[in-house]
């Protein structure tokens, strides 16, 4: 029965808004049986969880360095803990709310876009009830092995295309995950206005990628956009794969275009960096540069190997500048990386290598 925890509840609030964290702590503190801690993003929250495991986590979905769905998935796989989602993106019944529940959240509270402070105060009873109810949830670990582990073959067989003929132009292909939102901003902002086309896979849910691209477009000198099927790759433009869809680079006559496709998870991701990198290896070959950036897991390592085998130059972000040195580390271990540089040097390295080896 809710409210029966003998020693009270330990609740961790995870939200990048200082105001939301403050109001949440104030509301939950109304119940003297609840002890509240807060974190501004999932990585800070995870560090706190390692030191003291909470009884319930309240999490937003749109946050820096790691999105909420990925955070929920990580919690359920590594430290099963009841999660209540409180987000303006997840209205009840929407696909995002359903996905949060599928990942393991036990409750979803829709936060309005405006008037959040008043809404939270008015919804204090609902919030407290959700926290106590969540604390009684029976959770089971969700091992990663339960998710089918497919390779890029599921989307793009290796023999489908050939790069025997010279590619029409050079391309910079980029893969990133946890920590990639900030790393991509630094990388793209440092590229010259006439840089070769850039194709990017950032692990991110579909509702976030368009806003992410729009934000980068305002902050960077080059054009940045969420990719649509058939978009042409051209100099001074970066295309970001839409969330929940794979992105491939293909030849279309003398041009290179992107193809946006549905399909199963590849390397447990959709979009998958492995899919993008393989398509670039097949369509562009030695006139490409592959860049693997900060992120958890190993998506992109195999694809980067294939790019290198096709004659492309490959670059990895170094450990010191990564938020999570997972994806680059795995690519380096497989011998897929030609050059390792800090984040601040990735853009210049990609440009110089493309000019030297793929010009």
Task: Describe what is shown at a glance.
With 359 residues, the chain is an alpha/beta fold.
Topology order in helix (H) and strand (E) letters: EHEHEHEHEHHEHEHEEEEHEHEHEH
Widest sheet, order of strands: 8-9-7-6-12-13-14
- What is the CA-CA span between the terminal residues? 68 Å
With helices defined by DSSP (H or I, 4 residues minimum), what is the helix count?
12
CATH A-level architecture of the largest domain = 3-Layer(aba) Sandwich
Describe this structure in words.
The chain is α/β, with parallel strands linked by helices and 359 residues long. The chain folds into two domains: 9-144, 3-Layer(aba) Sandwich (Rossmann fold); 152-357, Rossmann fold (3-Layer(aba) Sandwich), CATH 3.40.50. The protein is built from twelve helices and 14 strands. The strands form three sheets. The chain has a seven-stranded parallel sheet with strand order 8-9-7-6-12-13-14, with helices on both faces. The protein has a five-stranded parallel sheet with strand order 2-1-3-4-5, with helices on both faces. It has a two-stranded antiparallel ribbon with strand order 10-11. Helix 7 (180-189) packs across helix 12 (343-357) and helix 10 packs across helix 11 (327-333). It is elongated, with a radius of gyration of 22 Å.
């Amino acid at each position: 029965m809710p409210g029966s925890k003998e020693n009270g509840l330990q609740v961790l609030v995870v939200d990048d808004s200082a105001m939301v964290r403050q109001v949440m702590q104030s509301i939950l503190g109304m119940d003297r049986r609840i002890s509240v801690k807060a974190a501004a993003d999932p990585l800070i929250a995870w560090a706190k969880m390692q030191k003291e495991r909470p009884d319930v986590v309240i999490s937003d979905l749109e946050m820096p360095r790691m999105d909420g769905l990925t955070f929920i998935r990580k919690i359920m796989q590594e430290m099963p803990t009841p999660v209540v989602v409180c987000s303006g993106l997840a209205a009840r019944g929407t696909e995002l709310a359903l996905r949060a529940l599928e990942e393991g959240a036990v409750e979803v509270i829709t936060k309005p876009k405006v008037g959040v402070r008043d809404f939270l105060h008015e919804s204090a009873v609902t919030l407290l009830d959700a926290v106590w109810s969540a604390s009684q949830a029976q959770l089971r670990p969700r091992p990663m092995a339960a998710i089918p582990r497919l390779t890029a073959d599921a989307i793009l067989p290796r023999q489908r295309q050939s790069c025997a003929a010279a590619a029409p132009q050079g391309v910079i292909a980029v893969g990133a995950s946890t920590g990639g939102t900030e790393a991509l901003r630094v990388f793209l902002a440092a590229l010259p206005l006439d840089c070769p086309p850039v194709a990017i896979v950032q692990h991110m849910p579909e509702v976030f990628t368009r806003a992410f691209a729009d934000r980068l477009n305002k902050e960077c000198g080059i054009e940045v956009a969420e990719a649509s099927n058939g978009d042409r790759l051209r100099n001074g433009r970066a295309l970001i794969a839409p969330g929940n869809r794979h992105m491939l680079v293909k030849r279309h006559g003398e041009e290179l275009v992107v193809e946006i496709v549905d399909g199963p998870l590849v390397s447990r991701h959709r979009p998958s960096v492995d899919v993008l990198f393989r398509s670039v290896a097949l369509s562009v070959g030695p006139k490409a540069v592959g860049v693997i950036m900060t992120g958890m897991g190993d998506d992109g390592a195999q694809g980067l190997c294939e790019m290198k085998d096709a004659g492309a130059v490959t670059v990895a972000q170094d450990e010191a500048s990564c938020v999570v040195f997972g994806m680059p580390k795995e690519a380096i271990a497989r011998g897929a990386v030609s050059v390792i540089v800090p984040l601040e040097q990735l853009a210049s390295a990609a440009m110089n290598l493309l000019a030297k080896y793929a010009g």
